[in-house]
Design goal:
The chain is of the alpha/beta class. It is 30% helix and 23% strand. It is globular.
């Protein structure tokens, strides 16, 4: 019997920032990571949502219910930006 080792994509959560978050998210998506960005600026979220395969959540990343929506507990890496 042959075993197939399917590698699960690493999930990364980025909270805050805009320019840094966009740049970092693009780099990580190119490396086939699953990336979610949380940002409390609606206009920034609209711009970030234009990035293919990027999950974007509008809200305050310091709030528990927003982190739950972002599925933060299943992320392997969380990055907080200013």
């Amino acid at each position: 019997m042959m075993w197939v080792n399917k590698k699960k994509k690493k999930s990364i959560l980025i909270v805050g920032g805009f320019h840094e978050a966009r740049s970092l998210a693009n780099s990580l998506l190119e490396k086939d990571y699953h990336v979610t960005v949380v940002n409390k600026n609606y206009a920034d979220c609209e711009k970030l949502a234009e990035i293919h395969k990027l999950n974007v959540i509008y809200g305050d990343g310091s709030k528990k219910f927003i982190l739950k929506d972002a599925d933060a507990s299943s992320c392997q890496v969380a990055i907080a930006l200013k």
